[in-house]
Design goal:
This protein is mostly beta strands. It has a single domain (about 15-155), classed as OB fold (Dihydrolipoamide Acetyltransferase, E2P), CATH 2.40.50. It is built from 3 helices and 11 strands.
C-alpha cells in the first residue's frame, strides 16, 4: 500500500473514504487508505528518552509498532472513558505506526468539494499537520495529514 502525503481536493465530484474519530472535544478524520486496522487499547511498553507524545510501543501479532499520543502532540485534553479509547494502526509506506484516539465515530464518504483548504479557513493557521477541513451536514471534521504527523515528524 502506498502512503499519500498530500492531496489536492480540487475535483468536487470525487469522494474519499475516511475514518472519523474524536480527540478531546473535536472530531478528526484520516484517509482510510492508510488505515490497517482499529483495535482496543493494548498494553503499551514505554520507551525511555523519547518525545513526550511517543506513548511507547505495542506488540500487535508479533509486530512492534510505535504508538503516538496526539493529545500530547497537539496539547489537547483527553476525554471519554478508556472503554471507548481505540488505537488506529496505519501502514505508511513500509512502516507501521499507531495513534490513540478517544473514540472512533464512523467510516464516512466525503465529497472532496466539501473540503476547505486550511489556508482558506484562516491564513495564520499552521497547516502542516492538516490536509483540510470537511463540512458534513452540521459537523466539521479536521482532516489530518497522518503521513506528516507520524513519518516526517518522527521516523525519518
Amino acid at each position: 500500500m502506498q502512503a499519500v502525503e498530500n492531496k489536492s481536493y480540487s475535483d468536487s465530484k470525487q469522494e474519499m473514504q475516511v475514518v472519523a474519530f474524536q480527540l478531546g472535544l473535536e472530531e478528526y478524520a484520516v484517509d482510510i487508505i492508510n488505515v490497517q486496522e482499529i483495535i482496543k487499547l493494548h498494553k503499551v511498553t514505554r520507551i525511555p528518552r523519547t518525545e513526550p507524545y511517543v506513548e511507547g510501543v505495542i506488540n500487535l501479532r508479533g509486530n512492534i509498532i510505535p504508538l503516538f499520543n496526539l493529545h500530547t502532540k497537539f496539547k489537547l485534553p483527553a476525554r471519554g472513558s478508556s472503554e471507548d479509547q481505540r488505537i488506529i494502526v496505519f501502514q505508511l509506506d513500509d512502516i507501521k505506526a499507531a495513534i490513540i484516539v478517544d473514540k472512533v465515530s464512523e467510516v464516512l464518504h466525503i465529497n472532496t468539494g466539501d473540503i476547505e483548504a486550511t489556508d482558506h479557513v484562516y491564513q495564520g493557521m499552521n497547516a502542516s499537520h492538516i490536509n483540510g477541513i470537511a463540512k458534513i451536514e452540521d459537523r466539521i471534521l479536521i482532516l489530518l495529514n497522518i503521513y506528516k504527523i507520524l513519518i516526517n515528524d518522527n521516523i525519518r
